[in-house]
Amino acid sequence: MKLLLHTCLVVVATLTLGGCSAVNIVYNNAPTFAAGEIDDAFDLNDAQSVQVDAALERFFDWHRQQELAHYQQMLNDAALAIADGISAAEYLAMYDEVRSAFRRSLLRMIDDLHGLTATLTPAQIDHYDQYFRNRSEKYQDYLEMSSQQRQIFAEEWIIDKLEEWFGELSELQYEKIALRLRQLPEVRLAWINLREARHQAFIDALRKAPGTGLSQQQLQHILLDEDSEYARIYEPQRLAYRQAFAQMIEDVSGWLDKAQIRHAVERMHEYEKIVIELQENG
Fold it and tell me: Which domain, by its residues, includes 70?
């Protein structure tokens, strides 16, 4: 179910991760896109497709009306923080805001779609399990890497994201950031383990409840409860990484020039304008 919900939320995340020119198109077509992904995941019948379409329309109507204003405020706050050099505390505050927005959307999606679980056949549950396994193959290469290879992978991925926001880094900046990134604790491996454990908990729960499905409370426990067995293993590592990453961002902020800072601020404001347009055109 986490993968099913992530399909919908990845469309929402496009507002902060995707290209500005694509946001309007992706967001406005989100219900259709998400319905197709859910169909691929579960091989839905016609009645289930109608149920999913209605649920997704409700979800995205709610998101446009209730959540986009929060996105607008988050983007404006981020632009202000970046403009004068973002601190670790400011980064952590933004991180918590994004995490809260994700949680609100996930809770709403559970409300709208949990009824689908009561209609799933054993064959559809097996289909989803295989779908998840197929989508997980991309993580296998990471699991087979040495610790040094994983470190290089993480460095390149994060630096690429930094350049998307701040523009091209100088050779000296690149070297300083790469050195700083090597001080961060490993967290991706722990996240992959969490992802697998959460999926298995979902599949096991579905197979134990044929014809009745899972309640909202059960789904919330599997997907969001930090007191679940697998979350208790992951949370300390996530928190340690979050703190270390926030301090790294503060350090990097001090190494950027005015043009790079301006590039990021302008991009934040571009997204803010798009969010305003999405609200007005809803």
Answer: 2-280
pLDDT at 236: 96
Say how many domains are in the chain: 1
* Residues 155/157/162/168 CA torsion (nearest 10 deg): 90
Q: Could you give the angle at which helices 68-83 and 88-113 cross, rounded to 10 degrees?
A: 170
- Report pLDDT digits (tens) over 76-135: 999 999 999 999 999 999 999 989 988 998 899 999 999 999 999 999 999 999 999 999
Beta strands in 20-171 (DSSP E): none
- pTM for this model (two decimals): 0.89
Distance CA 135, CA 55 (A): 24
For residues 33 and 11, the answer to whether their CB atoms sit within 8 Å is yes
Yes or no: say if 181 and 158 are a contact pair by the CB < 8 Å rule.
yes
